[in-house]
């Protein structure tokens, strides 16, 4: 589990990804004491049967960043924390010097970015034709950008935006 930083490989290992998500969710819920946040498995690892990079994406839905700020010192003990509030996101990265294992996106639950992440996951889980199209695109891009994860991710965005715009789910 995990992917060498900067690289792109695709695997099909849904059961292990789901176990890692459940473990990470339990850890986060314990860390958050009595506060309850929405914690969702998102991204390609959340879709059974879809090839994905072996990095589990998790979305944490919050009402305001003030809610999560008190946890940042604790979170920094376990994750690399990248605050990108102009994009309305705090990114928590579970990694070591060589590999990335989890990307945790902390976002405002009512913002478009959070809603789109959930919507796209749900579309892939409910529409096999779109899932296969997306998987083909991912395979093509993984071959094109095996050592450039940023370009791989960026190159999928037009397809994702088009699906989100043209699909009612």
Which value, in Å, is the CA radius of gyration?
16 Å
Oligomer: single chain
Order of helices and strands: EHEEHHEEEHHH
Shape: globular
Count of DSSP-assigned helices:
6
Distance between the termini: 31 Å
Helix content: 40-55%
What's the β-strand tally?
6
Share of residues in strands? 15-25%
Query: Which spans have pLDDT < 50 for at least 5 consecutive residues?
Result: none
Mean pLDDT: 93
Largest sheet: 6 strands, mixed
Q: Structural class of the helix and strand makeup?
A: alpha+beta
Outline the fold blueprint:
Blueprint (H helix, E strand, L loop, with lengths): L2 E2 L9 H18 L6 E5 L13 E7 L2 H5 L2 H5 L3 E5 L4 E7 L3 E10 L3 H15 L1 H17 L4 H18 L3
Parallel strand pairs: 3-6
Antiparallel strand pairs: 1-6, 2-3, 4-5, 5-6
Helix pairs in contact: 4-5, 5-6
Question: How would you characterize the overall build of this protein?
Answer:
This protein is an alpha+beta fold and 169 residues long. The chain is 46% helix and 21% strand. It has 6 helices and 6 strands. Strands 1, 2, 3, 4, 5 and 6 form a 6-stranded mixed β-sheet that branches. β4 (80-84) and β5 (89-95) form a beta hairpin. α4 (112-126) packs across α5. The longest helix has 18 residues, at 14-31. The mean pLDDT is 93.
